[in-house]
């Protein structure tokens, strides 16, 4: 089944889809995840950016070979129907888990700060309802939501001002004071924060100017990388090494450095406002997962979205132990790394198949 | 008009008029008797009378002329006496040729057509001698004169507003754009009311796809009655279920002119004061035409006030609810103390307190707009005092909340489009309830809903929130900040105009 041939995403849409999908809850805990590098973590996001840019190349390449197909269809075409479909099912399950991870993380955060006296069941329910509403508008409407999210949330950078004023600039030096294993550890834990750009393999067929897709997604990717860079930079300036290691959502506490006469806990506003970032990245994932079920069942039905959302709801709400939940979500994070390498495998299969045809 | 040249005068006072079935007069002139009536004549008149049945203000008047007896048939409520005198009776008496030159011939047996002509204000002339039916447009229903606008008044700029007459409204626009490219397509809608509408656009500037779209939507209409253009608007809007108006509605001719020149389409309806302009954007709901008459600095300031005022009015009172119900720690100690002190006597939780006061304001507003003007003032003052002082002293509400609710009520009246200020009031309740449920989290959830809803809306197929990113310089120059007039030459992105 090939996806709809209507091209609807322009350059701006691609930029902000890439950008907003990358920024979610990950960035909030990025400094802690990178804490094995100590103060030297400040510039690591830039390295991540380089890695991400390189891993983006095979994704765009394989997508541009099949201009009207998303990854699900490409899988079926290259790997054969049975194997392709089982891979697709795997991806859908992975996305569902990943989404559950994002939402559960965020709700956990909301419960610790804003809604400490309520259970999270009903808030999660409403969040998912809203998510369905956004996704039902289609990828273009998601892209527009991402765009507006960027412009709404970017003023939050201003609140870093006080952290810089109160911090210690000398924390930034020396620049690269870590060894290989420390870096790999940070990479494993922290790279999750910049994931999201791989979804271009799913919305690529909808892009109008596919030749410039690489450029546009790179712009989006680097906007996010620079935002991550700013956060780690300011965190390093503001916090001590011990704090970096032990404060879970250190970025949230950066807001608290601000002093106003009329407002005390600005972080509560910050974290509730973060819902835009959560929704924008979750919507893109949910849309991709829905496309997955569409391709599995070879039918386009709205209730596919509801099915996935129901699964997410159950994952988040069912009261099994937090350790087990974390394990599950961690597993899905690690699968994400496979997703990054997946296009490489597909590229190899693709070129082998081409050779076969030529022979 | 040379009344003094009349050879014969014809009195047409109501007393003398023969309504329905009065027989022919005895004072027919001898000249007329020279003509022999057509054998079908009496039957035809009888048949018309039968078909027109119980329409009581239909007048049948027999007049002797140089061409024999002529029965003049018209609807009294749709034709002014003066028009009748000048266009029918004087020519009939003196220059009957004129009648033949300006009239249109009708089939004497086509009764539905005859009836249609009569109820649309035309006058029929039946010549008994030749069995001929002529028709002249004498529609001259009473209209009110052009007055100031009460709903969209401005300090600077033209003060005239549309009236309920289609012709007057079109003339108000046409005298502002004296350009042959300004077209108005007439159509009739309403299966029962046969209401006249007119679609105005400037050829060469308007986007033809937009025009086709609006025509298709009007074609598909099967609605019996249109008492106001807002009914038409709700029927042809892209999303009729949304709380947001997706087309601009205005009673100001200068505003319509501006939009027409930008490549939009304006729709006018007979018997309706406002005009629809489409497509429009969300931002344009906050643009008053006065912005172009003010200095650009003042205009920009006012626009920002209106635009951000919309978001403030839906956020202020919900903020109070969520801060006091869920996150008291958000407020600094002194402010919290102050708030708690003012709330110390209040028995209700913040949500009920806010809803209570908001509803009282709604009641005051609604009562104020329904009451006779003289009573309204008094009741307004009494209501204000009751809420402002007595309710606080009675310990029903906190005085800080009075300030917040009053501010947000005032802010809700900032948008120049009244429908938009109604919408802001409705949306505020969604925000208050969600703040009552989940505090700030609920508020942000509602805000995200609002944004995604607005992003999903279309106005005539064009995104209502466009431009999220300004695509054209013109979009940027005339947005929240109004650049100096010299910069505002380009057509906006939403018009999709071919002309730059």
From TrEMBL, chain A:
Primary subcellular site in the record, as a coarse category: membrane
Membrane association type: Multi-pass membrane protein
Keywords tagged on the record: Germination, Membrane, Transmembrane, Transmembrane helix, Transport
GO cellular component terms, semicolon-separated: membrane
Transmembrane stretches, start-end: 12-30, 42-62, 87-107, 119-135, 142-164, 190-208, 220-240, 268-287, 303-321, 333-352
Keyword Coiled coil: no
GO biological process, one term: spore germination
Subcellular location: Membrane
Protein name, UniProt field: Spore gernimation protein
Native source organism of the sequence: Psychrobacillus vulpis
Taxonomic lineage: Bacteria, Bacillati, Bacillota, Bacilli, Bacillales
């Amino acid at each position: 089944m090939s996806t709809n041939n209507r091209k609807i995403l322009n350059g701006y849409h691609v930029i902000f889809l890439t950008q907003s999908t990358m920024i979610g809850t990950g960035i909030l805990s990025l400094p802690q995840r990178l804490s094995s590098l100590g103060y030297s973590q400040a510039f690591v996001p830039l390295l991540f950016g380089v890695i991400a840019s390189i891993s983006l190349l095979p994704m765009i390449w394989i997508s541009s070979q099949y201009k009207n197909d998303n990854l699900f269809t490409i899988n079926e075409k290259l790997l054969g129907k049975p194997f392709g479909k089982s891979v697709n099912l795997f991806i859908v399950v992975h996305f569902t888990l990943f989404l559950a991870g994002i939402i559960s993380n965020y709700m956990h955060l909301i419960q610790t700060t804003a809604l400490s006296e309520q259970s999270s069941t009903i808030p999660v329910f409403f969040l998912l309802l809203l998510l369905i509403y956004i996704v039902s508008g289609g990828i273009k409407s998601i892209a527009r939501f991402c765009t507006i999210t960027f412009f709404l949330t970017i003023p939050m950078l201003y609140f870093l001002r006080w952290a810089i004023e109160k911090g210690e600039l000398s924390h930034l030096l020396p620049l690269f004071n870590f060894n290989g294993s420390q870096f790999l550890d940070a990479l494993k834990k922290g790279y999750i924060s910049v994931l999201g750009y791989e979804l271009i393999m799913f919305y690529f067929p909808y892009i109008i100017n596919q030749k410039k897709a690489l450029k546009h997604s790179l712009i989006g990717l680097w906007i996010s990388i620079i935002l991550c860079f700013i956060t780690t930079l300011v965190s390093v300036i503001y916090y001590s090494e011990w704090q970096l290691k032990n404060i879970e959502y250190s970025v949230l506490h950066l807001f608290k450095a601000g002093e106003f006469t009329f407002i005390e806990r600005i972080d509560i506003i910050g974290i509730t406002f973060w819902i835009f970032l959560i929704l924008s990245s979750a919507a893109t994932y949910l849309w991709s997962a829905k496309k997955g079920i569409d391709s599995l069942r070879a039918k386009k039905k709205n209730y596919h979205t509801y099915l996935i959302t129901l699964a997410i709801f159950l994952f988040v709400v069912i009261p099994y132990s937090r350790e087990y939940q974390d394990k599950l979500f961690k597993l899905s994070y690690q699968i994400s790394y496979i997703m990054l390498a997946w296009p490489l495998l597909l590229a190899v299969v693709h070129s082998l198949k081409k050779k076969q045809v030529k022979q | 008009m040379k009344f003094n040249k009349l050879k014969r005068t014809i009195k047409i006072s109501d007393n003398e008029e023969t309504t329905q079935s009065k027989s022919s007069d005895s004072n027919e002139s001898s000249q007329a008797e020279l003509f022999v009536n057509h054998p079908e004549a009496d039957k035809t008149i009888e048949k018309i009378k039968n078909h027109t049945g119980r329409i009581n203000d239909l007048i049948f008047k027999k007049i002797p002329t140089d061409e024999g007896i002529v029965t003049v048939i018209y609807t009294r409520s749709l034709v002014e006496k003066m028009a009748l005198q000048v266009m029918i009776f004087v020519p009939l008496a003196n220059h009957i040729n004129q009648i033949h030159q300006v009239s249109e011939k009708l089939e004497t047996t086509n009764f539905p057509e005859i009836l249609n002509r009569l109820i649309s204000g035309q006058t029929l002339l039946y010549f008994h001698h030749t069995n001929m039916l002529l028709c002249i447009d004498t529609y001259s229903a009473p209209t009110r004169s052009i007055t100031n606008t009460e709903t969209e008044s401005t300090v600077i700029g033209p003060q005239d507003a549309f009236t309920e007459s289609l012709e007057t409204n079109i003339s108000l626009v046409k005298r502002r754009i004296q350009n042959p490219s300004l077209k108005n397509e007439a159509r009739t809608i309403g299966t029962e009311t046969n209401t006249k509408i007119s679609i105005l656009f400037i050829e060469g500037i308007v986007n033809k796809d937009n025009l086709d779209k609006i025509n298709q939507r009007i074609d598909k209409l099967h609605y019996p009655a249109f008492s106001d253009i807002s009914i038409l608007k709700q029927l042809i809007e892209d999303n009729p279920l949304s709380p947001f108006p997706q087309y601009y509605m205005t009673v100001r001719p200068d505003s319509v002119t501006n939009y027409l020149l930008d490549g939009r389409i304006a729709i006018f309806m007979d018997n309706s004061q406002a005009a629809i302009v489409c497509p429009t954007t969300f931002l344009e709901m906050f643009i008053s035409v006065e912005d172009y008459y003010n200095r650009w600095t003042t205009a920009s300031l006012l626009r920002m006030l209106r635009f951000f005022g919309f978001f403030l009015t839906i956020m202020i009172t919900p903020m109070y609810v969520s801060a006091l119900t869920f996150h008291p720690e958000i407020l600094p100690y002194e402010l919290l103390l102050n708030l708690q002190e003012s709330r110390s006597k209040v028995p209700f939780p913040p949500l009920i307190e806010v809803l209570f006061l908001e509803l009282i304001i709604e009641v005051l507003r609604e009562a104020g707009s329904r009451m006779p003007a003289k009573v309204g003032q008094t009741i307004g003052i009494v209501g204000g005092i009751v809420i402002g002082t007595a309710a606080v002293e009675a310990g029903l509400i906190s005085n800080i909340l009075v300030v917040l609710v009053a501010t947000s009520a005032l802010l809700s009246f900032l948008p120049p489009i009244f429908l938009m200020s109604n919408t802001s009031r409705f949306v505020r309740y969604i925000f208050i309830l969600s703040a009552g449920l989940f505090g700030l989290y609920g508020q942000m959830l509602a805000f995200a809903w609002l944004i995604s809803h607005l992003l999903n809306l279309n106005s005539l197929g064009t995104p209502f929130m466009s431009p999220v990113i300004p695509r054209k310089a013109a979009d940027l120059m005339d947005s929240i900040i109004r650049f100096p007039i010299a910069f505002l030459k380009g057509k906006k992105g939403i018009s999709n105009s071919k002309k730059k």
